[in-house]
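Weekly structure sync, notes
Attendees: PL (lead), two postdocs, one rotation student
Agenda item 3: pending single-chain targets
PL asked that the sequence for the first pending target be pasted directly into the notes so everyone works from the same version. It is reproduced below exactly as submitted, 213 residues in total.
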Amino acid sequence: MRLIVCILFALFLQSCVVERLLKFKNQLKNPEKYIHFNDPGLLKFRYPILHLEDIQLLTGVLPTKKIDNQVTYDFLRPEAPNYSFTYTLIFKDEKLVIIDYPDVFFNALEATFAFDSLGLLGNATLPDSNTWTVGDSDQSVKGIPLKKDIENVFGPPTIVTQFSNEIIYHYHYTHPVDGNLQYIKVSISFDKKTNKATQLFLQLPDRNWKINL
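Predicted structure, written out during the meeting:
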């Protein structure tokens, strides 16, 4: 009997997570309405939905540190420490209300690009696989960053891959968690003629994201 109760409780929790993620996805279809992006280094959710476990489900990335209602994530680049990043997530009543992200992103990337990128996620069909691809619709993205913009934010790439029509910058990060390390990789593709970013690929511990711009 106890086993049955545990199974039913687990199924209930899973259904709650799915419901929250679907609501959040619908919010992303109209990010200007639900997300405040005008304060440097702060992303504020006007109608909070996400719990910490939802974020862990989507990414597999665990917090570096958790104190009360604040959760910190450190992404380190040992070969280029000045381009390491720290994000702080602030929760209220267990719901994500603020993401405190590095100011360099706000200063270097246009708000239109941020909102349009979020809109891609909101309009995407997410498959049941380890790689979720978004951005295959006809939705346009404004303010796409150039290679120099990415270099200003992320610094020199860890590895560079070149092809006839594109160049790919690869950035490798270590993420400390409870004395261990998780590994995060970010790959950004650029068109050689325009120098504009064309694709963003995130290799996370439990989920890969491919975003076509």
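Discussion points:
- Residues 2-212 form one domain.
- The chain has a mean pLDDT of 81.
Action: rotation student to compare against the earlier draft before next sync.
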